[in-house]
Write a structure and sequence with these properties.
three-stranded antiparallel sheet; seven-stranded mixed sheet; alpha/beta; 314 residues; 12 helices
Length: 314
């Protein structure tokens, strides 16, 4: 009699049976490479000239605001600590940090944004903030941002780079104690997740913060996550203006991730959705979030963007 080459134990198991190959996704997937491919499929990245043009519509005169207050509360920046504010824009964080006496390097690739910041710093007499024209891709050392050059590095709503890991590691290298960033939990902050879901495009929500969390964990860091809700009250003069605005939002969200037929089918659902959700705006004519008069129509429920606040200590 020929014996079976696989022996059973008393409980019926086969301890010497060859194991089936298993590849765990979380430890073998290259999250940064997927991020790079996702960025290619999205709309083209904005360049500095785009933000130079938009700078006139921004300002930090209303800071602190609920988003800023929550960010700074979660950041836990200690009295007197120095800060690198990367992608600072017009200074929503840099201005209150400077007003509190923190030495701040406020870096952005848009001279238009920095110009608005410089005007406000001069108006308020804040001298501890140093504006710096510098992009994510520049040689930071050549701009004086060296290893451990700030106690805390922050990047508020400013990471939309082609190489997420490189951006996260640059911030980590620049900080001596702590890094704090925010990323959207769904699609671009320029879009309304409710609209994407109603139009059948919910699978195109980016979940950018999950990529950051996975990359940081792979690097042996211990990211902590909290959430900040930011209201975006969109108003319009006419239903057609609303349709054009949300059509652009759809294009921003999906880029080349869907076919032309899928995009057209989604936009065909947009007008009925707007008919159900546009209402007369009771605040029409009153100053809005950016100081300009609100328009005649608004969404029944204001759009909300949920930001993931991710921080890690060195």
């Amino acid at each position: 009699m020929v014996e079976n080459s696989i022996h059973e134990t008393p409980d019926g198991s086969h301890p010497d049976k060859p194991a089936t190959a298993f590849t765990p996704l979380l430890t073998t997937h290259d999250w940064n490479e997927e991020w790079k491919e996702l960025q290619k499929a999205r709309r083209a990245a904005d360049d500095a000239s785009h933000w130079d043009k938009r700078a006139a519509t921004f300002g930090s005169k209303d800071a602190p605001n609920p988003y800023v207050e929550r960010f700074l509360d979660l950041a836990g920046i200690r009295p007197g600590e120095s800060v690198l504010d990367m992608g600072c824009g017009t200074g929503a964080l840099s201005v209150p940090l400077g007003a509190a006496g923190h030495p701040v390097v406020a870096a952005d690739f848009s001279q238009g944004m920095l110009g608005v910041l410089e005007d406000e710093l001069a108006e308020r007499g804040i001298v501890s903030v140093t504006p710096k024209l510098m992009s994510w891709e520049d040689d930071w050392a050549a701009h004086g941002v060296l290893h451990g050059s700030a106690d805390v590095a922050v990047a508020s709503r400013s990471i939309a780079t082609a190489d997420l890991k490189d951006s996260l590691m640059r911030l980590t290298d620049a900080a001596r104690r702590r890094v704090c960033i925010t990323l959207p939990t769904g699609g671009s902050p320029r879009t309304d997740e409710r609209v994407l879901t109603a139009l059948g495009l919910q699978n195109q929500l980016g979940r950018d913060y999950l990529y950051a969390f996975a990359i940081l964990a792979e690097e042996g860091l211990k990211p902590e996550v909290s959430y900040i809700e930011s209201a975006r009250p969109d108003t319009f003069d006419t239903p057609e203006e609303a349709y054009e605005t949300f059509s652009r939002m759809v294009d921003d969200a999906v880029g080349s991730l869907v076919t032309t037929a899928e995009r057209d089918a989604a936009l065909a659902r947009l007008r009925p959705w707007l008919a159900d959700n546009l209402v007369e705006n009771p605040r029409a004519g009153l100053p809005g979030r950016k100081g300009e008069p609100e328009k005649r129509l608004a969404l029944r429920e204001p759009r909300k963007v949920t930001w993931a606040f991710i921080a890690w200590d060195k």
